From TrEMBL:
UniProtKB keywords: ATP-binding, Nucleotide-binding
SUPFAM superfamilies: P-loop containing nucleoside triphosphate hydrolases (SSF52540)
InterPro entries in the record: AAA+_ATPase, ABC_transporter-like_ATP-bd, ABC_transporter-like_CS, P-loop_NTPase
Superkingdom of the organism of origin: Bacteria
Gene3D superfamilies: P-loop containing nucleotide triphosphate hydrolases (3.40.50.300)
Keyword ATP-binding among UniProt keywords: yes
Protein known as: ABC transporter ATP-binding protein
GO MF entry, a single one: ATP binding
Every ABC transporter domain range: 6-238
Signal peptide: none
Length: 272
């Protein structure tokens, strides 16, 4: 597994007359973990769908190692990019091991069986998300958190060089949130991830892009982006931000019951 460069260049996505995303550009350099944050409805999921080639941009393009993603053969793209989406889709009448084995499909011909190497990769993917003991369970009988871990394992078994994940910590307890994000942080791959938890984003992401109403309103390192002013502007909440003495990462503390301070008109908080 080697890392891939992702470049989103001036992407606009529409649904009828409504803009989902407007003129958004971002980069995820090889080996980076890049986070998308922002309120509900800000365009994070739509932008991710463009990144893993489900929504075709109305304007702009998505490039994977310099090539237009929509020009790449499906099989080559599947070997390069793996996605974990919020909606798991229909139930699978398969065991957990069989679901994770689906991640090996881009690397095989149609009727090929699993090799010893495939089995090793599948087992390793399951263990990395603490799901080894689920291998023979029926996928459709798992809890929401267990399903999420299995779908992440399937993406890991694909051995992509670019992972695109939409709220992968949804349904997970705190321990498994930390374990899964730790696995993603250590991968020799590029990761683009949407997260709601700003403290997790601050700790695990190299850089953040903040979306609001389909546009990028801030970009930079977590320390540059996560400020009380931005949280007031984008989320409408009062908060304090300090560097945690143990982790060295910004830590956001929300102040329930306090009104967000008044702010000036929205401005791009990107570092100069």
């Amino acid at each position: 597994m080697t890392a891939t460069e992702l470049a989103v260049e001036g992407v606009t996505l529409t649904a009828g007359a409504r803009h989902l995303v407007r003129d958004v550009s971002l980069t995820a350099r090889p080996g980076e973990v890049v986070g998308l944050v922002g309120p509900n409805g800000s365009g994070k999921s739509s932008l991710l769908r463009a990144a893993y080639r489900v929504l075709r941009p109305d304007a702009g393009c998505v490039r994977v190692d310099g090539a237009d993603a929509w020009s790449l053969p499906v099989r080559r793209l599947a070997r390069t990019v793996a996605a974990v989406v919020q909606e798991a889709g229909a139930d699978f009448d398969l065991t957990v091991r069989e679901v994770v084995a689906m991640g090996r499909s881009p690397h095989k011909r149609l009727l090929d069986g699993d090799t010893a190497e495939d089995l090793r990769i599948i087992g390793s993917a399951l263990e990395s998300v603490d799901a080894g003991d689920l291998a023979e369970r029926s996928f459709d009988r798992l809890s929401g958190g267990e399903r999420q871990r299995v779908l992440i394992a399937r993406a890991l078994a694909q051995q992509p060089s670019l992972l695109v994940l939409d709220e992968p910590t949804n349904h997970l307890d705190i321990r498994h949130q930390l374990e899964v994000l730790g696995v993603l942080r250590r991968l020799p791959a590029t990761v683009l991830i949407a997260l709601h938890d700003l403290n997790l984003a601050a700790y695990y992401c190299d850089r953040l892009y903040v979306l609001r109403a389909g546009e990028v309103t801030a970009r930079g390192t977590p320390g540059e982006v996560l400020t009380p002013r931005l949280l007031a502007e984008v989320y409408g909440v009062a908060a304090e931000v300090a560097v945690h003495p143990r982790t060295g990462a910004p830590q956001v503390t929300f102040l329930p019951g306090e009104s967000a301070p008044p702010v000036m008109a929205m401005s791009d908080h990107s570092p100069s």
